Amino acid sequence: MICRVTAALSCLCLLLLNVACSTVQRVTVPAQCLALPAEILQPTPVPYPPLSGEHLTYGEAVIWADALLDALDSANKDKAAVVTLEKRRTQTGGEHVKG
After folding, report:
1. Is residue 9 assigned to a domain?
2. The pLDDT value given to residue 10
């Protein structure tokens, strides 16, 4: 009986010593995001058709198509910049990086 009590007390003391000796502190570090350039956040302007009358002429359609392609190119460049910044953010481990 005394042997069991002694063994139980010894195990309890060892358990308390293990718990009391742990000095691990957990620190939460907030994730920092990239600061996106203001040019990327601006909406891409939508070009409206240059109407000279009631209907769109072939010449106006060509001019309008060129303006639409320019707007599409601008939007694609903004998306490519966001992808580049996202890759840079994941490579640095989420640290704050100026573009």
Report:
1. no
2. 76
Number of domains comprising the chain: 1
- Determine the residue type at 30: P
Q: Can you give the pLDDT at residue 30?
A: 75
Answer yes or no: is 96 within a domain.
yes
For 5, 7, 66, the CA distances from 2, given in Å and listed in that order, are: 5, 9, 95
DSSP H or E run through 89 = helix 58-91
User: For residue 11, what pLDDT is reported?
Assistant: 67
Q: What pTM value is reported for the model?
A: 0.52
The arithmetic mean of pLDDT across residues 52-80, rounded, is 90
Give pLDDT, residue 62.
Answer: 92
φ, ψ (nearest 5 deg) of residue 72: -65, -40
Within a domain: residue 11? no
On whether the CB atoms of residues 71 and 8 are closer than 8 A, the answer is no
Question: Residue 47's closest CA among 73, 23, 25, 24?
Answer: 73
CA dist list (Å): 55 to 47, 48, 51, 69, 86: 17, 13, 7, 21, 44
